[in-house]
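Is adenosine-5'-triphosphate placement plausible here? Inputs below.
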Amino acid sequence: MDLGEPALVLDGLTKQFGPQYAVAGLSLAVPQGSMFGVVGPNGAGKTTTLSMVTGLLRPDAGRAVVLGHDVWTDPARAKALMGVLPDGLRTFDRLTGSELLRYHGLLRGLPAGVVAERGEQLLASLGLAGDGDKLVVDYSAGMTKKIGLACALIHAPRLLLLDEPFEAVDPVSGQVIRQILAQFVRGGGTVVLSSHVMELVENLCDHVAVIVDGRAIASGALDDVRQGQSLQERFLGLVGVQTGDEEVLSWLQSSRD
Ligand SMILES: Nc1ncnc2c1ncn2[C@@H]1O[C@H](COP(=O)(O)OP(=O)(O)OP(=O)(O)O)[C@@H](O)[C@H]1O
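Reply from A.M.:
I modeled the complex. Tokens:
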């Protein structure tokens, strides 16, 4: 593994659903050891992109390369390097939290003793120590997010791909997750996360990509993308703000009469 090579390279990644391009020739490079935020409006193609990178969805064209391994021609090696938290994907929720962690750990080829030890540590770190014996189907949305993150981390991957990791997570757990991700990056790991919360991306990430209509219209070091503005201002400038026409929804004011 060359330390200078990017953790992730996307090269002309493309996916079409019927006549519509969800991802339209997206290219970007994620440096090793970076905390990389992916932002974009609803429907921009973020989840579709992450699904192609993690091997869930086959691209129509282009490549995703993880630390030198092509996800679609060398999937076993590429996937061994990745930990994935998909957004909204069903999991085996009839297992308990501990069982789900054990399943992921063993599937990743870890010895049972290591899985048990790491599982307990992850549950404790994420504030789920008392919930390991509860069925995942009975977890709250935030708890489900946290057990998903634990499953993504158990094999100590080199690249973490997290779709909306802070959604539905309370502020205390959010802080814990931020600390775990920072520790992961300090140890040489790389994080790619999508989020709609600009302040969070601005505070947490050192690199960012703005995705619009399936293309990266800006990407690189946070300060280069921001160009002296807040990320929110820059994002709105790049995406173009649609101002609502008051006339169109004038009936909303009918309750005044
Ligand atoms: N399975 C599918 N079949 C048809 N169209 C799809 C499918 N999946 C995604 N799309 C379309 O592709 C486009 C990109 O969707 P995607 O979910 O990747 O966007 P996103 O950036 O993750 O959006 P959001 O921020 O709202 O989660 C959207 O127009 C969506 O309707």
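Short version: Strands lie at 8-17, 20-30, 35-39, 61-66, 69-70, 82-85, 159-163, 190-194, 207-212, 215-221.
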